[in-house]
Specification:
The chain is α/β, with parallel strands linked by helices. It has 9 helices and 11 strands. The protein has 2 domains: 123 residues, Periplasmic binding protein-like II (D-Maltodextrin-Binding Protein, domain 2); 138 residues, D-Maltodextrin-Binding Protein, domain 2. The protein is globular and about 60 Å long.
Length: 309
Amino acid sequence: MTDIGIGQSGPSRPAFGLPLLAVCFALVMSAIALPGCSNEKPGAAQEPGGTGRTIENKGSDTLVNLALAWAEVYMRAHPDVSISVTGGGSGTGIAAMINGTVAIANASREMKPEEMAAAKANGIDPVEIIVARDAIAVVVNPSNPVQHLSLKQISAIYTGKIKNWVELGGEDRPIVLLSRESNSGTYVYFLENVIRMGDRKSELLFSPDTLLMPSSEGISSEIRQNPNAIGYDGLGYVTGDLKVISVSKSEHDPYIVPSAGTVKDGSYPIARPLYMYTAGKPAGQIKDYIEWILNGGQTLVAKLGFVPL
């Protein structure tokens, strides 16, 4: 992996004959002039008129709101630059970066070895840039009396070993498990660092009873309606009508509530960096944009519930 080295009614039919030939000729010439038909590098296409660039940015749903905020502010200050931001999950963004269809992939996890190998096979040397930090909050319905859990208990819940809230000091109710889908970087991080508790040899998996939700908003909506549900999400997506569980590394450690402060001091046990990946060392407009994110753009991070660098 390369080091970045920076501070980041129906229409009428045309008559046959010469007029039709003229129409066809005009259409062909128009197509040639389209910016998408230029020889510009994928993911950073020349804008119409050649006055600026479009930076395609795709990936993590955790990062998407922050990435949209960055893009909006940056484009106001740099009207010659256009930035397109979409979600879809970390895996989707990384695959698009490897395929050369986006300039920047957003990810809430590190690239997997097989993704790195696929990039190398495609002649790409990915560059990893940490752009913010985040806590993964474990959330329940406000009516749930359970206040805190250890990592071991959360792992037992999500593997199906603990099935009823009464086993955790709650009411006699079945636990309903909610998770992001497997293309989500948050899903991967939670599997590796919570369910498997960082043990790379572990083969523990989510219980087959786990309901996979397509978005962060889907998890929050279900928890609001279901007093038996438990879910997890990036801290920036947790709203005041959800109950956040305090978490301990072990049964003998203190229970910590996720916050910017507990992420910075390392006391909250489910915290992670958030990344952008580029296909090689960023240059030009992409380099300028990432440098701004790592500096002036950090002022937006806390406003959206994440932790600045």
